[in-house]
Every structure is written in C-alpha cells, then in structure tokens.
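Researcher: Go.
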Amino acid sequence: MGLDKGYGVLKCHAIAGKKELDKEAPHYQVHVKDDQFSYRLAINVRSVEQPFDLFYFVDDDFEHFITDKLDKLNFGFTEIEESQRKAGEIALDYIRANLFKVDNLKPLPFNLPGENNDLNELIDSHIQRAIDTQAVVYAFGEPWGPENKPDKVFDFKPGRGVHNIHMNQGNSGNFARENGVFQDGALLIHYPSAQGSHDHWVAAFFAFQSQSFHTDDRTGNPIAIDQRVGTEPVEPGVSAVKAQVKIVAALVNPRKEDTGKESITLINSSPEKVDLTNWAIADSLKRKHRLQGLSISPGGVVTVSLSGENIQLSNNGGIITLVDDKGIKIDGVSYTKEDAQQQGWTIVF
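Model: Structure:
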C-alpha cells in the first residue's frame, strides 16, 4: 500500500532539538522552519518491537547524484508523486538507489549512561551543528498536518511535520501496509563551506532490525531467496546476499577517441569461483547488460566492456547495480557528476 499520507522531502533549517528518554516509542524531535512555517521532525530512536535498538548509518561525507537535485528544490515540503518514485529521481530507496552499503548499518541503543554513545546523542550532535552553521536540512518521510492545534512538543501552531524518517519497506505484521519502494526516509544535511572545511553533505539512515533488506521490486514486501554459495540466511537486519562479487571501478566518461567504450570492473572477494552466466549490470534506469561466458576465480578481477546499446552510464551521475541470474542484487555503487567530469579516468569505488 505504501505510506498513508504520501511521501516527500522537507527542505528547511533546524531551530531546536529535543531528546525523548521516558517513552515507550521515543523519538528525537526537531523544530525546523522553511521560509514560512514551522514543522516538527519526529525521528524514531527505538522500536516498539524486539529487537528494540535501531540500525543506523551516518555518512559524514555523502556523495550521490541526488544532492544536485536537492539543491534546486524550494524551501518547504516537496511531495514526491507515485510517478516520481523510481530510479534516477530524488526518491530514496535503501536497497535500489545505492545510497550506501546496507552492511554499514549497525544497531545502537537510544539511551545509555555517559556521553556521545547513544542514538539520541548522535542525532543531537548533528542537529546542533546544523543549527550553529545554519545548514540546510532535508527530511525524507511522510508528512502530517497542518493540524488545528499547537504542536505537542514545540507548541507552534498549526502543528505539522514529517515522520517515518527511516526505511519504509521490508516490514512484516502490523507495519506491512506501509511497505513500498522508493519511499524510504532519511535525514540529509548540507553544511556550507567555512574556514577550514569544505561544502559537504551528511546523510543519516535508519532502519528497524525487524525489517528485511531483500524486498519485492513492486510492493516493497519482504521476499525469501534460495540458499546457495555466497549467501547468508535471510534474517531481519541482515543483508540478503553477501556480496561475493563487488563493483570496484567504472570508466564512465571515455576519451573522445574511445567513445562507447564504457566499462565496469568486478572483483571476486570470495574463496570460490563464481560463474557470472546470466548475471547483469544495470544502470539508473534499470536497463541491463547481460553477462555471458564470464566467470571469476577467487580473488580475480574482470573488466566488462559495455556496448552502449543496452545500458549507458550518464556523465551527470548515476548508479550501477550488479544482479545475479535470479535478479537478486549482489552489489551497487553510485557516482556523481563531479566524479565523471574527467575524460578517460576510471572511477574507483
């Protein structure tokens, strides 16, 4: 079904942050403003189901082609319609958009004795820095309001905000109705350049340990996979397939005399030989280049030349995904327009 009240991204500035420590389903609450209105961001820091600790990953120097698109948005909430929830657009998908390696997600309790050691404090450190530097905050998730009453946390009126700022697929049980693809939540912060630091982005991703990281391409519902060489048991919070073959490099922008000679370099990190027959490399638009007659020895490397007839790697940034013969994602990377600027240079991931 997807999120009941829609999906989108709020571009805003942070005004204040507040930790919740004494509730069954605590959130880290953020008061933010666009050019006109106040909003509240409700960021889950603990699950209502076991395991209670959330998965998180913070990329302190996030690079992805969507940041160019986000920069161009107006302040305020931008609704991302169903037709825009696909690869190549600004909608987020933890599995399909190659925003980060899913294995980077780690569990963290929401409240622990001491300083700078729990999820509340981690989020608070970035929000406080965003306030101090007047950074631009982008909150992806589900909107609510405006309500005909003051906000229950920060008391501004009318109450409105964004929640479900976490992965919104792979749910089972009561939360399965919220499943969908390209509707995941996250918090992105664009810090301006300052003395001693460069203009850069920070991205924070959150997921529940009860969610599956292998989901149906249409519904976002969890699906099972067959066990075979290179796979791990499919358990909540565990990547569905161990990436025995990885994308390590790509020639995206060939020299003029080499036009059409784009290539992808793969490495087999496993101790077993891997047959790549009927595997495929996919681009941002899900066009596929099928692999035939290729295998990789343990520790071996192979460079796949692309014809330009089936998939094309955009010089404006994009994603590259490797899937096996059953269509299961094995690995994925992303690159930016800046990465692809210099002709003839291979991008190393």
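Model: The chain has two domains: 8-207, 245-348.
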